[in-house]
Specification:
With about 950 residues, this protein is an alpha/beta fold. Strand 20 (about 520) and strand 21 (about 525) form a beta hairpin. It binds adenosine-5'-diphosphate and magnesium ion (2 copies).
């Protein structure tokens, strides 16, 4: 049978049909289970049903699927039976399995898994006889009914109830018995709970819980396939751009039991710290527990290492003598198992050359590894791990650069709490620093509220006892996440780190009351809507809203940025028009200003009056009078910027927006202005009315202003060039580039250029000195693209204004698209918001054409882009491939663009290399 017709892949006893390369077909979990077998890691035997079968099931239905896989599945169960010496559906010596989801991309907790499958009342009795451990058997059975009931039989909370009805039964039983945790249940309790669970299933679904293991198995397999299409999985895929067509694989695997007593345990470990990136082995476990117990946060897990355990204790305010007795680490409790686990972790990290997130179970003193994957991590950890692994020679430079997702750099640049504020504020509680970041918000206790409040513009902190995958949307909407229970591997912690969202977990001293919507500490009660602040790096929770300050950039970050610049071809500039922005951008490594919007400079209090005067003047004389007042102010702005840029290119765009944006629409201000100008209010009002436009975006703006009122361009050119001359006398160089906006015809370009050049000559003569400067244009009107060759004869550079170009290509008004674009996105009419991610299919063609034609007009034409897209990684890759010279983006996105530019160059290199390799091979094969 070849791989195309093979539907099931087995693994066990150091053999496997598949391997790590086969993630597309076997999913990440299945491919790595196979690989771990090949590496000799102890993994319970099992088999993987391919993602191909998921597509068949979803498209062609249940019967078709079963007809295809039935024989192979039956034979593979036999394979498990042979390896384990047990028999599926046998009463005396039963084989129990887990049925696990696992897609190509990791989607932690989004799909379903069922454990302990293969039990019924008779088999329970047989297994008790075999193991002589009734508590364990009933515990396994009740877990099985709970999972199967939920996943396969769809038992849900009743309308309006948030609590899982199975958990409700467990809670009631606990209260009745006066127990603190589930671990206190004895065999008898668990037997009763299993019976109540079955009754719940019957009542809720009208069906009996199935007792035939084969029926259970087929039900579970198809339910796991179905879970690919559950709401949260779909939502997760949308968020992470995972294609629907991929489908999930199903893994069926022999059970190993962490719930057989105190010599058994289950846990999760990481080869490095997922939140800081430090190279320290860490993780959490619970004794006498199974499956998701550690992640679910229902019992507080223990730490795997002594070191981790001590850190945890000091955060939780627990003294060492108490810690070592009440909360010992795995390293202390099961030293041999610990060593073996550490050994496996080292093998796996070296093999996969990345931080591993490893699930394990200890069954009566024997270690089993159940899963390994490249661990989710914060942006900061991503950077640190990449740089560390480079230094450890685990990765080469290119791979290290590719390891960091440009979008995630954002997290490192976010502000942190102001030190001064921290000292003065009240700490209300301490939890585990599960995911770093500083965030403030108003308390909400339910995911639905987090979504609702944040859609109304509120900043919220989602406060939960623990989170579950159902809370995903609320977690996305919240500014930060706080849980009272759970550890560093809890659902909340893992998901938050994956999203780069601030999270504090396991703040045990907080009492959360969902019904009253309050949370309490020993001496304080906070209610829904109150402000709190979380410091995800220290685990400290503060009352109120704390001020923030700039983040500190690490040496690792700088190193990554330097490496990026080594590999990238695109230069990264910034869009900036204030000294503050310019300084931020330089700190982030901008190599110039790609867009300085002069209109922003006019909105200043002292300038706006003269600006209005200029606009409302009735003739050129009046306008010149007002412009003369503006000139020194503009000149000073440019001097400041040139000084800060210290010889780097500064691209200045001449006045662009329609004039009515500057005039006052409020009566009182209009009157003041009239007094100032010595004309009547009536005249001012008329003039303002005359400026009204039906469609200002397509109206009197851009170079249309400079061509109808040449004195504006004249003043601006004067300010720019005089500023350059002035700072030249201070010994500072400058490289001004004067950019004409909204050009659509050659004449528009020519006329503006003439004004600028004539002005320049006049100034140079006056000063007896010259400045090098460029004159170029934005490419943002489709017509400019079509005649780009002719425009380039007059323009020394092009800069794509992709915001306007997108607006005019789609015919979507930037200001009005909010009314329909969200719906278009939802319906899939457009895949991304074209104002954020460049539409390569359409607008991209215009870019390609303008580049080609532009270079015909002028072979050394300098080409850049200054729209929003300059900071979007996918768009940056496109601009790289089009051969642009630079991208320009807002200051905080400069590092993102730098890294994205390096990714683009490295990927291109790889493609070229692959093509060359192929050519060589081809040549060789022809020679033979
Ligand atoms: P997820 O993808 O949500 O992590 P998994 O399929 O990994 O789901 O399973 C959930 C939990 O059950 C994990 O903790 C895993 O280690 C445990 N588990 C899965 N299969 C087995 C098995 N055969 N024996 C013991 N524990 C298992
Ligand atoms: Mg798992
Ligand atoms: Mg524009």
């Amino acid at each position: 049978m070849n791989n195309l017709t093979k539907t099931v892949f087995i693994f066990g006893d150091k053999q496997a049909d598949g391997n790590a390369e086969m993630k597309n077909l076997l999913g990440g979990k299945g491919a790595n289970l196979a690989e771990m077998n090949l590496l000799g890691i102890p993994v319970p035997p099992g088999f993987t049903i391919t993602t191909e079968m998921c597509r068949i099931y979803l498209n062609e239905g249940h019967d078709k699927l079963i007809s295809i896989i039935k024989n192979e599945v039956t034979a593979s169960i036999k394979f498990i039976e042979d390896r384990t010496g047990t028999k599926f559906s046998d009463v005396d010596n039963p084989c129990l399995v887990s049925v696990r989801s696992g897609s190509r991309a990791s989607m932690p907790g989004m799909m379903d898994t069922i454990l302990n499958l293969g039990l019924n009342e008779n088999i329970v009795k047989g297994l008790i006889k075999k193991t002589n451990n009734a508590r364990f058997v009933w515990d396994s059975y009740r877990r099985f009914i709970q999972m199967y009931g939920k996943v396969v039989m769809d038992v849900r909370p009743e309308e309006g109830d948030f609590v899982d009805p199975f958990e409700e039964i467990l809670d009631e039983a606990k209260i009745q018995k006066g127990y603190q945790t589930d671990s206190e249940f004895n065999a008898e309790d668990l037997k009763n709970i299993a019976q109540s669970f079955k009754k719940l299933v019957k009542k809720s679904t009208g069906k009996d819980f199935p007792s035939d293991p084969w029926e259970q198995l087929w039900g579970a397999i198809t339910a796991v396939f179905d879970s690919w299409m559950n709401e949260r999985a779909i939502y997760y895929r949308e968020m992470n751009n995972i294609p629907q067509e991929w489908g999930t694989a199903v893994n069926v695997q022999a059970m190993v039991f962490g719930n057989m007593g105190q010599k058994s345990a289950t846990g999760v470990s990481f080869t490095r710290d997922a939140s800081t990136g430090e190279k320290i082995f860490n993780g959490e476990f619970l004794t006498n527990a199974q499956g998701e117990d550690v992640v679910a946060g229902t019992r507080t897990p223990r730490q795997i290492t002594i070191e981790g355990s001590r850190r945890w204790a000091s955060l939780s305010g627990i003294a060492e003598d108490i810690r070592s007795i009440d909360f010992p680490s795995l390293e202390e409790m099961m030293p041999e198992i610990y060593q073996e686990l550490l050994g496996c972790a080292e093998v796996l990290e070296l093999h996969f050359k990345d931080m591993q997130d490893i699930e394990f179970t200890v069954q009566e003193g024997k270690l089993w590894i159940l899963q390994t994957r490249n661990g989710k991590r914060t942006g900061a950890a991503m950077v640190k791990m990449a740089v560390d692994m480079l230094e450890e020679n685990l990765l080469d430079e290119k791979t290290a650069v590719l390891r960091v997702d440009p979008k995630r750099l954002d997290e490192l640049l976010h502000p942190i709490f102001d030190q001064g504020e921290i000292i003065q504020s009240d700490i209300i509680a301490q939890g585990l620093p599960a995911s770093p970041g500083a965030s403030s918000g108003r308390i909400v206790f339910f995911a639905e509220d987090a979504q609702l409040w944040s859609s109304e513009g509120e900043s919220v902190i989602l406060v939960r006892i623990e989170t579950s995958p159902e809370d995903l949307k609320g977690m996305v909407a919240a500014n930060g996440i706080l849980t009272a229970r759970g550890g560093m591997t809890s659902h909340a912690a893992v998901v938050a780190r994956g999203m780069g969202k601030c999270c504090i977990a396991g703040a045990e001293r907080l009492k959360i009351d969902y019904k009253q919507r309050i949370m309490q500490t020993e001496n304080l009660t906070l209610k829904e809507g109150d402000w709190i602040s979380l410091d995800g790096s220290t685990g400290k929770i503060y009352q109120g809203k704390l001020k923030t300050s700039e983040a500190q950039l690490t040496a690792d970050f700088e190193k990554l940025m330097d490496l990026s610049d080594q590999y990238s071809r695109l230069e990264v500039r910034t869009n900036a028009d204030t000294p503050k922005d310019v300084m931020t951008a330089r700190r982030f490594g901008a190599k110039g200003i790609g867009l300085c919007r002069t209109e922003h400079m006019f909105f200043d209090d002292d300038k706006i009056m003269s600006m209005r005067e200029m606009i409302l003047s009735e003739n050129e004389v009046g306008r010149r009078k007002a412009l003369a007042k503006l000139l020194p102010m503009q000149r000073k702005d440019f001097e400041d910027i040139f000084r800060l840029m210290n010889g780097l290119p500064v691209n200045i765009r001449l006045l662009d927006p329609p004039l009515h944006e500057f005039v006052p629409h409020d009566e009182k201000v209009q009157k003041e202005l009239a007094d100032e100008m010595g004309i009547s209010h009536e005249i001012i009002k008329q003039k303002i009315e005359s400026l009204y436009e039906f469609n200002p975006m397509m109206g009197h703006r851009g170079c249309r202003l400079g061509n109808t009122y040449p004195e504006i361009s004249e003043m601006q050119a004067t300010a720019i060039l005089e500023a350059a001359l002035h700072i030249k006398y201070e010994g500072i160089e400058s490289r001004p580039e004067i950019m004409i906006p909204l050009t659509g015809t050659v004449e528009e370009m020519q006329m503006q250029k003439k004004i600028i050049n004539q002005t320049a000559e006049k100034i140079f003569e006056l000063y007896g000195d010259r400045i090098e400067y460029l004159v170029g244009t934005m490419i943002e009107v489709p017509r400019a693209v079509l005649i780009a060759d002719k425009i380039a004869e007059h323009a020394e550079f092009f800069s794509f204004g992709t915001n306007d170009l997108t607006q005019m290509t789609f015919g979507y008004s930037r200001d009005d698209s909010g009314k329909f674009l969200p719906m278009y996105l939802e319906k899939g009419i457009v895949k991304d918001d074209p104002f954020q991610v460049l539409d390569q299919e359409g607008v991209g063609q215009l870019v390609t054409m303008a580049v080609r034609k532009g270079k015909i007009g002028r072979s050394n034409l300098k080409i850049g882009i200054c729209g929003e897209h300059g900071g979007d990684p996918a768009s940056v890759e496109f601009f790289h491939n089009e051969g642009l010279n630079y991208v320009s983006c807002s200051p905080y996105r400069v590092p993102i663009a730098r890294l994205a530019a390096a990714h683009a160059a490295i990927k291109e290199d790889k493609k070229i290399n692959a093509a060359a390799q192929y050519a060589i091979k081809r040549q060789e094969s022809l020679l033979i």
